[in-house]
Design goal:
Elements lengths: L11 E2 L5 E2 L5 H14 L11 H12 L4 H14 L3 H5 L3 H8 L6 H16 L8 H5 L6 H12 L8 H12 L10 H10 L4 H17 L18 H4 L19 H14 L6 H5 L5 H13 L4 E2 L5 E2 L5
Helix pairs in contact: 1-11, 2-3, 2-8, 5-6, 9-11, 13-15
C-alpha cells in the first residue's frame, strides 16, 4: 500500500520556540507519514499486486511473529494458494503443514476457515465491508481493521503492539502501553485518526512502521524519530515504566514446546504416524499426552481408527 501524504500543518509553539502537538494532530500525521514515505520497507504485502488476499494472509502470519520469519512462508503460501478459493479447496492439514515453524499454528486453521467462508459467501473475493470482514472465522477487530485499511484504503483505527507503543510514548507520555489493549487506548486511536480515509490508511501503516523500526521496545531510535520533539514521553524526560513487570514468554520445557515437537513430526510425515513415533519426541509421558490431547482438541491433529495420527484432513 502506498501511503497518502497528509497536508503539512504549521506547528504550534511554546514561548521558547519548541513545537507542541496541535489539537488536530496534523503535525504528527504529516511528519510520520512523510517519514514512512521515505523509510518504509519494501514488503510484498505492501505492493499493489498483493491485493486484499495478500494483505489478509500477511496479517494472520505477522501476529506475534517477526517479518523475517514470515517472508519465506508468505511467499510460498501465495505461490501455492494465490486466491482464497485455492486454499479453501485444499485440506486444512495442508495449511498447517505449510505454516511450518511460524508458531501459533491455530492461525493456519483460522486462515483456512476464513478462506472457505470467503469462497462460500463472497464469491472468492475478500470483502471490502468492515463488518463482513469481522464476521469471517478467525478475524478479530484488529485484522478486520488492518485489511480494510491496508487493502482498501478505509478509515479505521489499527492497533497492534507497535502502534500502541508509539501512542503510549508520543501522546500519553508513558514508556509502554498496558499489557492488554484498553478502552482508553481505542478511544485515543480514534481521536488521532485523520478524517480523510486515504490519509488515515497511510497513518495506520506509518505508525506501525515507526513502532517496528524506531520506537522499539528495547532500544528506541529517538534521535532519528520524526516526532521526537513532539513526543510526550521525551518531553517528560523519558520516565521509566512504572506499571506491572513486563515478563517475556518462556518456551523451553513448556507444553507449547512439546506441542511444537509433536506437530513437527506430523507435518514432516508423508503418511499417518504411529503412537510409538510420537512417544520418542518427549521424555515425560504425562506432558506428552497432555500436549497431544491439546493438538487433537484444537483440530491440529487427527487420530485415525487404527491409532495412528495425522494432520487434519491430510491425505
Amino acid at each position: 500500500m502506498t501511503a497518502t501524504t497528509a497536508t503539512t500543518a504549521t506547528d504550534t509553539s511554546t514561548a521558547t520556540g519548541a513545537p507542541t502537538p496541535a489539537d488536530d494532530h496534523t503535525a504528527l500525521h504529516s511528519r510520520v507519514i512523510e517519514w514512512f514515505g521515505k523509510h518504509a520497507r519494501d514488503l510484498p504485502w505492501r505492493r499493489p499486486e498483493a491485493g486484499a488476499w495478500g494483505v489478509m494472509v500477511s496479517e494472520f502470519m505477522l501476529q506475534q511473529t517477526p517479518v523475517n520469519r514470515v517472508l519465506p512462508v508468505y511467499e510460498e503460501w501465495l505461490r501455492r494458494w494465490p486466491r482464497p478459493a485455492d486454499l479453501a479447496a485444499d485440506a486444512p492439514g495442508e495449511a498447517v503443514r505449510a505454516w511450518g515453524r511460524l508458531g501459533y499454528p491455530r492461525r493456519a486453521l483460522r486462515l483456512h476457515s476464513a478462506a472457505a467462508a470467503i469462497a462460500e459467501r463472497h464469491g472468492g473475493e475478500v470483502p471490502t465491508d468492515h463488518h463482513q470482514l469481522l464476521a469471517l472465522p478467525g478475524v478479530g477487530e484488529y485484522t478486520a481493521a488492518a485489511v480494510a485499511s491496508f487493502a482498501y484504503g478505509q478509515r479505521h483505527a489499527v492497533l497492534d503492539t507497535n502502534v500502541r507503543r508509539v501512542f503510549a510514548r508520543a501522546v500519553t507520555g508513558t514508556q509502554f502501553p498496558p499489557n492488554a489493549t484498553t478502552a482508553a487506548e481505542r478511544k485515543l486511536a480514534r481521536m488521532l485518526l485523520p478524517e480523510e480515509p486515504a490519509t488515515a490508511a497511510g497513518w495506520a501503516a506509518a505508525t506501525m512502521e515507526l513502532g517496528a523500526l524506531l520506537c522499539t521496545a528495547r532500544t528506541p531510535g529517538c534521535e532519528r524519530c520524526p516526532i521526537a520533539d513532539l513526543c510526550a514521553w521525551r518531553r517528560a524526560g523519558s520516565p521509566p515504566h512504572e506499571g506491572p513487570a513486563r515478563r517475556g514468554q518462556t518456551y523451553a520445557g513448556t507444553d507449547r514446546q512439546v506441542r511444537g515437537k509433536l506437530l513437527a513430526v506430523l507435518r514432516e510425515a508423508v503418511a499417518p504416524v504411529p503412537q510409538s513415533v510420537l512417544d520418542r519426541v518427549w521424555h515425560d509421558p504425562e506432558q506428552r499426552a497432555r500436549a497431544l490431547s491439546g493438538l487433537l482438541t484444537d483440530g491440529l491433529a487427527e487420530r485415525l481408527p487404527d491409532g495412528r495420527y495425522r494432520l487434519p484432513g491430510a491425505r
